[in-house]
């Protein structure tokens, strides 16, 4: 079977998919990888589309990773739409799907002595509000990269800090893998696409769009000058609308260090994390 005639093949064992990729890699030349936790949407498929344009073999994975959830209830409520996900990946032209269980991903258990040196990135924003989260993210992606050995790893910008964390991890442990970051895909009203959106009821879904509206407000107001007042107004607006706000931050786009004043030269990013009811949403915008 050549790659041109390949229909999507599903693997549940790491050894099986690794062996298949090794066999096909000379023909494929480059391998693109799109890791997911399922509950797929158009944002995920846009990553598959990017990989299809650049790589000879496109691999995706669906695995809800328990080690990156610092809230057990959040893990238990994470949406699952596996049959729909498989159909979407097939229609997008994905070549291989890795669909492991926890025992396959962590044959020696989820407790590991491996600690990923993430420095400052692990102490702020998502790192601060979700302790242990990025260690879990690195743990699962490190394992997946060992299995797939891709040339390119495709990620979405919605998880801005996670992209930076994974870039740091891959540079240290998988230097041959290049990270490609795709723009955030949005609904027609501006809400960032997210698997968590499936958990929003009708009223909360209407409310959720105010996060992207707040980011647009920050962008419009963040010309040269001090930024603290803009952040505070954004927080107060979201809180008044009924959100429980974890953070509204304006930071250096390269380091995520908070910035107090816009000098008009340094690339900046605005980031928000807030609860709509029980559902925690994140979003960001480049300034």
Please, what is the CATH homologous superfamily of the largest domain? Answer: HUPs
Estimate percent helicity: 25-40%
For the largest beta-sheet, the strand count, sense and barrel status come to: 6 strands, parallel
CATH class of the largest domain: Alpha Beta
Q: Helix count?
A: 11
What is the helix/strand order?
Answer: EHEHEHHEHHHEHEHHEHEEEE
Average predicted local confidence, pLDDT: 94
- Amino-to-carboxy terminus distance: 48 Å
- By CATH, the topology of the largest domain is Rossmann fold
Structural class: alpha/beta
Shape by Cα distribution: globular
Radius of gyration using CA atoms only: 19 Å
The CATH level-2 architecture of the largest domain is identified as 3-Layer(aba) Sandwich
Order of strands across the widest beta sheet? 1-4-3-2-5-6
Extended strand count: 11
Uncertain stretches of 5 or more adjacent residues: none
**Proportion of β residues?**
15-25%
How many domains is the backbone divided into?
2
